[in-house]
UniProtKB/TrEMBL annotation:
The keyword Metal-binding applies. GO terms for biological process: inositol metabolic process; signal transduction. This is Inositol monophosphatase/fructose-1,6-bisphosphatase family protein. It comes from the Bacteria. Pfam families: Inositol_P. GO terms for molecular function: inositol monophosphate 1-phosphatase activity; metal ion binding. Mg(2+) 2 binds at L93. Belongs to the inositol monophosphatase superfamily. Its cofactor is Mg(2+). Keywords: Magnesium, Metal-binding. InterPro entries: Inositol_monophosphatase-like.
């Protein structure tokens, strides 16, 4: 990916944060928040950020199209053809519930797909300004410094990470609960993929497990971890593709940790 495109996307995300998100951080009014689906909220900041980001991304690469979370909420057909051509995936405000609650655990995330394969990604923490980026074959960077996930071998009792249980089927919840005592610690996650994925590279967690796989939630972070040397795969070990929304994804700081965690949590 050309460095000017990488930089221009970062600038767009920072502009969206400055114009649509940060002015309302901890200052949301009652009318700024509504329930999008049962248990899930959306704010005026989500929508305004996407309105800023989407046309600017489309203009960067002629022939590309944008699939944004909020646009899909009103037009599901935008999800068709994610494996075709250049597609920008946009999560204008990941961790909306945290944003509404006044927590700083929220993010803006973008991934660029080419014929279904992620080729670049950006994750911006609007509050701290931390920017995580990755480009295929060029590695992963946090605030301009190249980063790599740990290659350390760990036993199950040394592995600490998060399992996002909200969407897990009951049978799988029971299986995870039974296996969790074999790990060092199983956490509930930050409720923001834009926080959880970089934490693997930064060494704060050794693994993550998700069930629901909306492409804008996972393509940016999964690609970041992969470019940093981590291992990302479906629960059966098969390749993750953003266009395939079948549930279940496990992320490890390396392949060995991935195997250890899977065998501990998902026996059989």
């Amino acid at each position: 990916m050309r460095s000017n495109v990488m930089d221009e996307v970062a600038t767009i995300l920072r502009q969206a944060a400055a114009e649509a998100i940060l002015p309302r951080y901890r200052k949301l009014l009652a009318g700024d928040v509504e329930e999008k689906t049962p248990g899930e909220v959306v704010t005026v900041s989500d929508r305004e950020a996407e309105q800023i980001i989407s046309p600017r991304l489309a203009a960067l690469l002629p022939g590309s199209r944008v699939v944004g979370e909020e646009a899909v909420a009103t037009n599901l057909s935008l999800m068709d053809g994610l494996d075709e051509g250049l597609v920008w995936l946009v999560d204008p405000l990941d961790g909306t519930a945290n944003f509404v609650a006044g927590s700083s655990a929220f993010s803006i995330m973008v991934a660029l797909l080419q014929d279904g394969q992620t080729t670049a990604s950006w994750l911006l923490d609007p509050v701290s300004g931390q920017l995580s980026v990755a480009s295929r074959g060029d590695g992963a960077f946090i605030d301009g410094v190249r980063v790599r996930a740990s290659t350390a071998s760990l036993t199950a009792s040394e592995c600490r990470g998060s399992v996002l249980t909200r969407f897990l089927p009951e049978e799988l919840k029971e299986q995870v609960a039974a296996g969790s005592p074999g790990l060092a610690e199983v956490l509930p996650g930050a409720k923001c993929a834009g926080v959880d994925y970089p934490s693997i590279i930064q060494g704060m967690q050794n693994f993550l497990m998700f069930w629901r796989l909306l492409p804008w939630d996972h393509a940016p972070g999964a690609f970041l971890v992969e470019e940093a040397g981590g291992h990302v795969a479906r629960l059966d070990g098969s390749e993750y593709r953003p266009s395939d929304q079948r549930p279940g994804l496990l992320i490890g700081q390396n392949r060995e940790v991935w195997d250890v965690v899977r065998s501990t949590l998902l026996k059989g």
